Amino acid sequence: MKNKRILVITGNGKGKTTAAIGIIIRSLGHEKKVGFFKFFKSKLSGEDKILKKLGVRIFQFKKAQFFNPQKIPKNLIKECEALWQKVLKNKDQFDLIVLDEINLALSAQIITKKDFINFAQNTKANLICTGRAAPIWLKKIADTVSEIKDIKHDLGIGNQTQQGIEF
Q: In what side-by-side order are the strands of the sheet with 144-147?
């Protein structure tokens, strides 16, 4: 049995980050140290307030924006690179590292396969990678892969995001 694991939560459905937060809560219940790195996100959401009170260290973009995933703006690429450097700098502080929405950065090769694998091999922490479009190579090296499928989502029919549900 391996001491550390890589979990991937992907798919086009709602709930990938929420699933990762459930594992964060479970880890905190066992007095584990958790780092939550939020790619492509800059605003604090409802869960962040509670997680901070529970001792989770949260790192995120300084400024994020909506964008077409086929063409990631240069400023967001720079934000990815900067946040990745924080991951590398802090990797030995945590028992669990959540890389929220990193799958897009990996599939777009903003963070290379080689760099990610080197990081994964050289950290003691369990890793959770969330987001749509997890690359095939990540699914192959992961210990657990869960895909969340979108059956129906009210935002698809024009409803607005709701505090406490989407953020």
A: 57-60, 34-38, 96-100, 126-130, 6-10, 144-147
